[in-house]
Structures are given as structure tokens and as C-alpha cells.
Amino acid sequence: MKKPLLWLAMLVLVLSTFLAACSGGDTKKTTTEGEKEKDNAAEEGPQDGGTLTYALSSEFKGLLNWNFYDADGDDDIIAFFDDALIDYDENLKAQPNIASWKTDDNKVFTFTFEKGVKWHNGEELTVNDWVFAIETIATLGGEHQRWSNVNTIEGVKEFNEKKADKISGLEVVDDYTLKITFDKARVNNLDNVWAYPLSKKEFEGIAPKDMAASEQVRTKPVGTGPYKVTKVIPGESVELTRNEDYWKGKPHIEKIIVKVIDTSLTTGELKNGTLDMTPFHPTVLPEIEALDNVEVVRFPGLSYYYIGFKLGKYDGKKNVMDNKKYQNKELRQAMLYAINREEWVKAFFSGLGKPLNRPIPTAHWIAADNKDMPVQYEYDPAKAKEILDKAGYVDKDGDGFREDPNGEKFTVKFSHYATGNPTFEARAKAMTQYWEEVGLKSELQMTDVNLYYDQLEKDDPAIEVFYGGWGTGADPDPLPLWGIESVWNYPRWVNEDAQKLLEDAVDLEVVGTDTEKRAQLYADWQKIFNEEVPALPIAELEEVMAVSKRVQGVKFDVSGSNSPHEWWIKQ
After folding, report:
1. What pLDDT score was predicted for residue 237?
2. CA distance 384 to 363
3. Worst-scoring range by mean pLDDT, 106-110, 215-219, 249-253, 560-564?
4. Distances from the Cα of 42 to the Cαs of 28, 74, 280, 401, 550, in angstroms?
5. CB count, 10 Å around CB of 55?
6. Measured between alpha carbons, how far is 413 from 402 in angstroms, rounded to an integer?
7. Do residues 2 and 75 touch, judged by C-beta distance below 8 A?
8. What's the chain's average pLDDT?
9. Is the whole-model pTM more than 0.85?
10. CA dihedral 395, 401, 406, 408 (to 10 degrees)
11. What's the farthest any 2 CA atoms get from each other in the chain?
12. How many CB atoms lie within 10 A of CB 57?
């Protein structure tokens, strides 16, 4: 059930649960590095049948297609019924799945599909479905979240601008062979390319701009995966039944129910056996670890939380940094010094996270050592006050709060997404309290999670400072996320030196195959980010998943879980 391993794959981690009452008991062993503990029954071999219940703790948005989803929850569901062309191992190295490939120069790749892989509508998957997906994203252009995963293909930009009626870099050799030519040789062309086909048959006659709202995405999605979607109750539940003709073999579990439950019921449902599997927020770790019938699986995380500043807007092609309110980097630095991140992580994540001073999780090979960062942001409210004083943010009217350097009233308007989890508001309020303690008047706005990221993407002026989280992927290249042309660059940060470093880091003419040279360029980029702080790095997390002991064959690692068709239920 591995999710798309790329920088754009995952927005904020909203799979969280509120502390719920549960029975006591001794703390149980927590499984690490991903494989759920085996018992004697597991050694007897997989059994067929049964229903697995998987829970989400907040309403899913309902964009049930890899090509259109943009929020966590949806991707959990999609992973049950649609396969990627490329897989990744525990070392985050690309492995063939439906597609294998060859290249001599990292510019021209020849991909070969497995034969006989079928969509759930009975149509055979061919490379034409992959071309269709790329053309769809290319048509939508820069405002589509996956634009940076296709715009490096030769001819995509000309196709988008209607200067060409086809993409020159896509050559269909036959139904199972596609040659892709990129605009230049890059180290990460394979890892960055969008590798999720779109059924041409299903979406025939639907304009790309209308696809996300179609029933083919919302209520009747099809995929190539081990389970088929049989029923969708929008925002509440999805029923999936096994795909008897799955190309990797018939799944063992007959049915999977994905449902949204009230977060206060999570621990009780796990205890009662009415819930088999769920990601959960670290705040309930002690309660879930105490359950006799559940294993808590912990594995290295590739996600981090941050607080971003709206520094400008996206003009349809690139980010423009034209919002003056938070342009002063000393202001942003002071706001980071003011946050007691150690205390905050302990309070709201049960210690399963740790502060970081750069936007790269430690599990990635390009992560620079925190101690090498030019600015060490320890909790230091006195230093925050000193920086603010020097920058001209001082209390001129004696009300206890600082005015801006022009003597105007200054309020940090902080936004956080809202779900059914009341701890979210508590942790957001904690942030505003840290800032108010150094004299920055702060105002909190909680926004429904399904509206929140629409506002961010559209640069709604109602959002000025915001809480967010990113899950990174197999290739840690930050360009699709922090690049000047990226719509996912929510702060709208523009820095030419930083951009050049990211471009050089994937350019074969600059780095060749020298990973150390590439890592150094990324380290230099992280140093710029560390000083500029267009977003305040808050914490990186270890991932946790609750799995009932009756569910067997489940494995997790840094790349996600193994395929659900390998899972089985002990009868």
C-alpha cells in the first residue's frame, strides 16, 4: 500500500486522533522497523477471506485518483485500489513494478509495461494510458500540483502553450513500450517523472478541467490494484472488494472497509476488534500500546511540520514574492527562536518527533547535519526579543504588544486546519502564546481542512502565517516543492541562489553521478533556507500505525507498506 513516493505526494498529515479513554494494562512491546510480530498461526501460511476495517480520523476529501488527489486520507484509500508503475524499496531505490526501464544517458528512457494488467473496468492497461495522464496534467499546466513531475519532459511546455498538438518527448513504440525523452539529462528524471496512468477509456470525452469533479474520481474510481471500489459514501466510508484478476495474484482478504470514525472512539474500537488498522496521532501512543490485541508499528518517517509565511502569490507560471508584511527575515527568525519546540513536541506528539533546523527529514541521505546549519534555533525568547527590537518591532503605545517598524499595529494572523480533533486547536494556540510572550500580538484562525489547502493554493489573503506538513518521497529533490515555478511552494519563496543550487544538484553536467557533490549542493541550499526561514521548521516525525494482531503479513518501512494483496486475516 505504498503511497506515491515523491515530494508532491502528501500534504499535511491529518490522520490524527484525540486522546480516548481505554482500559489499563501493561505497556506492550512496540514493533520497530516495520514488520508486525508473527505468531505461531502465521507460520501456518496465509488464510483467505475476512473483512479488514481501516480507519481515518477525519473526513476524506474524495479525490480518489492519484492524478487529482491533494490531501491525506484520499491517498490511503487510493493505495488499496490503484498501483504505481514504479515501486521503491526500503532504501528508497526505484524498482520495477508494472513498468521496467532502460537508459544510457538519463535523458532518454525506454519503459516496458507488464502485459495483461487490467483496469477494473476490464480494459487492458497500455502505455497510452500513461501518455493520457501526462497529457492531462500538461494541459492543466502550472496550477496542477503535478506539473513539476511532467514539465521536464521534452515538448510538454510547448504542448501546454498550444504550440504543439502532441508532446514530442513521448514516443509510443507499441502498446507496452514508451520512450520518454526529457529536456535534459538529470540525475533524478526517473524518480521525478509522474508514474501514475489514467484510464483513457474511463475519462473519454471529459475535459481535463472537469475530471476532478467527475464521478470517475469521486464515486466510481477504477484502478489496477488489488481491490476494487464498490461503494463510496462521500466523506464517510469506502467499501472495496478483492480483485480476483489482480495481476500479482488474488488477494487473501475478501473485503476492506475504510471508514471515518470519531477520534474519541479509536482506542475503544481497536480494543473491541471493530477496527483492524489505523494511522494515529502520537498523543495516543501510550493508550494504544497498552492494548493486548494490537501491535504498534513504528518506522522511520519522511515527514515534517513547518510554519509558513505567505510572502507573495503564484501568478500561474511562477511565484512572485510581493507581500511585504513578513518579508523581514529577522522577524521570521525571531518567531522561530520564540517557539519551545522540545516542549511542544513532547506535549503534542508523545516525543515521537524532534525539532529540526532544515526542511529535510533526517532519514534522507541529503539531510545536512543540524549542527552544520549557520543558525542554531534553540528556544531563546530573550534572543527573540533582542532581534525584534533591533529590527524595529517595538511596543510604542505601551499596550504590551509590538508595532511594526513604521509604528503601525502588528498582528500575526496564524491559520491552522481543523478536523474533529480538539488537540489541533490546542497546539495552534500554543504557538500563538509563544509569540505573544515575546510581544507579538497573535490571532488564531481554525479552518476546515477541506478548505484550508484550497485557500493556500489560491493565495487567499485570509491566510498569512500557516501550519503545514509535508511527506517527502524517494528522491528528496526539494525543487518541486520549493522551486520558483512550483505551485506547491506555498510560502511563494523566491531566491535565485537557492534555485540555482537545486537545478545544479540534478544536472548531470554539473554533478555527474557524484552523490557526494550532489549532497553538498543540497547542504548549501539548506543553509540558505536555514538563514532565510521562509518557513519555520518545527519537527520531523517517526511514523506509527496500529495493526490488529489478527491481521498478518503486513510490513512497513520508510517507503510505506507492502501490497495489501499480501495481507491476510487469521480466522
Report:
1. 97
2. 30
3. 560-564
4. 20, 31, 25, 62, 10
5. 26
6. 14
7. no
8. 90
9. no
10. -130
11. 76
12. 24
